[in-house]
Design a protein that fits this description.
innate immunity, six-stranded antiparallel β-sheet, globular, RIG-I binding, GOLD_dom, eight-stranded antiparallel β-sheet, about 30% helix
């Protein structure tokens, strides 16, 4: 596996020429890098006007490796070839290095670049990238990889210190300014030599960018200053090392590299809203900076946020009055580390009453809004306290907790909330203080702890009785002035006191089921029920050919088959007959059938896309470019599991599927839009933001050989 490294942009607040003077003092050897034993100049070129200076060195390194490994390898020193290409006219230095020793077994490439800061010509930027590919090494591949990464990260940390050391040395010698390169005056007698010089310089200017291109840098790096811009919040900017330290915290070089590479991948592939840097970092921390694992869970979370409109929850959703009156939780100042503090009086909260009055989905949405508010408060506190704050502290008071809180549907709702929060808000909980835990608490803890991540569990501090008032208690984490009054503190806490929810506010299971589905469809989505023998169909009338029909739907329950048909004549509107086949109403959504039973496929209407089977929990986005005007019918049909021909006994999958789809009913949430073909990409950016696998509908359709469609399927 190839190991890669990409540094952030490091800014020196010194002119480029002074940085170059300091850099040259590292050669032929540098006492600040013990492993750098020495170097010899192998090749050197200097243009006659002095603008181009290319020098190639053979560097000798004493790698800190076990003596046994050196003996097996048969070497005491490792040699690298380093090529420095300085363009004083454009004020750039490109450094390329590769290993000479064991080059047939290990491939190491490094590229560094010094350029002028784009917004301040008296500052200098530095960037660095590298790759390590170990093909084979006498069976010690893993050991060599660890040694190489350890040595490399150690040298990266020293890089800036070394430059600053030599800058200080220059200052002590009275050198605080180095003049910029200026072209020499040209005399008539020297025109010929000058012309040949320009040709040589031009040839070098071509060679250097080609080498840089191998490392993925722009080929015009030498023709114009290409220093990365300082971060100002736009997603195309590169990350500045000072910005990382100020807003994201102290990261190791490899952690910085992981953040930059994952962020760059998102910029190149993700067409939706790019997460903020601190949120990307949370996913990396949750997976111990394993880029592949972090990318997987983050893409799933981005899909989930888009499906459920989570980005707009604080602006578009108002909590029901029942929650405002009886949900005993709220934000309360901050802890000693500057983290926002959330107080939850769980023992005083009627969880059963809230679930009966609101349903599981409303509670989940409220918790999501709390988490979104927590992210916003972390950003504010980062600015206020002048240091990175990426998580919050939660104080949970369990006084009053009893067996009523262990009501099964309430625990089920709690477990689902924990699951959703763990998946989509990793590393946001800095500390959880559980106070006044009663005897029933171990029962609750046994139920919920298996669903909590190990890293999160380590942040829990549990106090029984009044233990929180003693040494190692609340005062270690929260200032005395803001301890809530209900904990014998001096600060008035405006968190609702909770209490029993009046039974008059309870709703029936049918009402709650309808409300749960409606919660996520308040903006642009509609809901529908699909029954066995009664598909749900919608009509789309197309006036101009080459229009684009787009769709975005979630399969909330059961498995369905999605079809698209075309008809030259308009279907008859469904009759308002609740018992008839054309109109079936249900608590979870409507059901409409448009295709008359006397219609024949191929005569009265035709299929324009191959059927697409969609499983429960999947989210599907796609499009169809219409070939003809007329009437298009989008159909969601109940999917029956095929019987097993080899045996009269049902398969396990068939049994499980029949249990999941009770009463032969499925549910879908859908949104459709018709737009002009030329506007498709721009208008449907939001539908293309999912990072799931692509599933291309079959091209062999009955009547749309010139149409094209695409669908994305993500599993929720």
């Amino acid at each position: 596996m190839v190991q890669k490294y990409q540094s952030p942009v490091r800014v020196y607040k010194y002119p480029f020429e002074l940085i170059m003077a300091a850099y040259e003092r590292r050669f032929p050897t540098c006492p600040l890098i013990p492993m750098f034993v020495g170097s010899d100049t192998v090749n050197e070129f200097k243009s006659e006007d002095g603008a181009i200076h290319v020098i190639e060195r053979r560097c000798k390194l004493d790698v800190d490796a076990p003596r046994l490994l050196k003996k097996i390898a048969g070497v005491d020193f490792v040699y690298f070839v380093q090529k420095n290409s300085l363009n004083s006219r454009e004020r750039t230095l490109h450094i390329e290095a590769h290993n000479e020793t064991f080059s047939n077994r290990v491939i190491i490439n490094e590229h560094c670049c010094y350029t002028v800061h784009p917004e301040n010509e008296d500052w200098t930027c530095f960037e660095q990238s590298a790759s390590l590919d170990i093909k084979s090494f006498f069976g010690f591949e893993s050991t060599v990889e660890k040694i190489a990464m350890k040595q490399y990260t150690s040298n990266i940390k020293k890089g800036k210190e070394i430059i600053e050391y030599y800058l200080h040395q220059l200052e002590e010698e009275g050198i605080t300014f180095v003049p910029r390169w200026t072209p020499p005056s040209i005399t008539p007698s020297s025109e010929t030599s000058s012309s040949s010089c320009k040709k040589q310089a031009a040839s070098m200017a071509v060679v250097i960018p080609d080498a840089a291109l191998k490392e993925g840098l722009s080929g015009d790096a030498l023709s114009s200053p290409s220093a990365p811009e300082p971060v100002v919040g736009t997603p195309d900017d590169k990350l500045d090392a000072d910005y990382i330290k100020r807003y994201l915290g102290d990261l190791t070089p490899l952690q910085e590299s992981c953040l930059i590479r994952l962020r760059q991948w998102l910029q190149e592939t993700h067409k939706g809203k790019i997460p903020k840097d601190e949120h990307i970092l949370r996913f990396l921390r949750a997976r111990d900076f394993n880029i592949d694992k972090a990318r997987e869970i983050m893409c799933q979370s981005l899909t989930w946020r888009k499906q459920h409109q989570v980005d707009y929850i604080l602006d578009t959703w108002t909590p029901p009055q029942v929650l405002q009156d009886y949900y005993a939780g709220g934000w309360h100042h901050h802890d000693k580390d500057g983290r926002p503090l959330y107080v939850l009086r769980l023992g005083q909260m009627d969880t059963k009453g809230l679930v009966r009055a609101l349903g599981e989905e409303a509670l989940l949405r409220y918790v999501l809004s709390i988490n979104e508010e927590g992210l916003r408060r972390c950003e504010e506190n980062t600015k206020v306290f002048g240091r990175p704050i990426s998580s919050w502290t939660c104080l949970v008071d369990l006084e009053g907790l009893n067996m009523r809180h262990l009501w099964r549907p309430g625990v089920k709702a709690l477990l689902r909330i924990i699951e959703v929060v763990e998946a989509n808000y990793p590393e946001t909980l800095g500390r959880l203080l559980i106070l006044r835990a009663p005897r029933v608490f171990p029962v609750l803890w046994t139920l919920v702890s298996p669903f909590i991540d190990d890293n999160t569990r380590r942040k829990f501090l549990i106090y029984a009785g009044n233990d929180y008032q003693g040494p190692g208690g609340l005062l270690d984490y929260i200032d005395k002035e803001i301890i809530p009054d209900f904990l014998s503190g001096e600060c008035m806490c405006e968190v609702p006191e909770g209490g029993l929810v009046p039974k008059s506010l309870y709703r029936t299971a049918e009402e709650l089921e309808n409300e749960d589905l409606k919660l996520w469809t308040e903006t642009i989505y509609q809901s529908a029920s699909v029954f066995k023998g009664a598909p749900h169909e919608i009509l789309v009338q197309i006036v101009d050919a080459s229009s684009v029909i787009t769709w975005d739907f979630d399969v909330c329950k059961g498995d369905i088959v999605f079809n698209i048909y075309h008809s030259k004549r308009s279907p008859q509107p469904p009759k308002k007959d609740s018992l008839g086949a054309h109109s079936i109403t249900s608590p979870g959504g409507n059901n409409v059938q448009l295709i008359d039973k006397v219609w024949q496929l191929g005569r009265d209407y035709s299929m324009v896309e191959s059927p697409l089977i969609c499983k429960e929990g999947e989210s599907v986005q796609g499009s169809h470019v219409t070939r003809w005007p007329g009437f298009y019918i989008l159909q969601w049909k109940f999917h029956s599991m095929p019987a097993c021909a080899a045996s009269s006994l049902p398969r396990v999958d068939d049994v499980l599927a029949s249990l999941q789809v009770s009463s032969h009913k499925c549910k879908v949430m859908y949104y459709t839009e018709v737009i002009g073909s030329e506007d498709f990409r721009g208008s449907m950016t939001s539908l293309e933001s999912s990072h799931s696998g692509f599933s291309q509908l079959s091209a062999a359709t009955t009547s749309s050989s010139q149409s094209h469609s695409s669908s994305m399927i993500s599993r929720g």
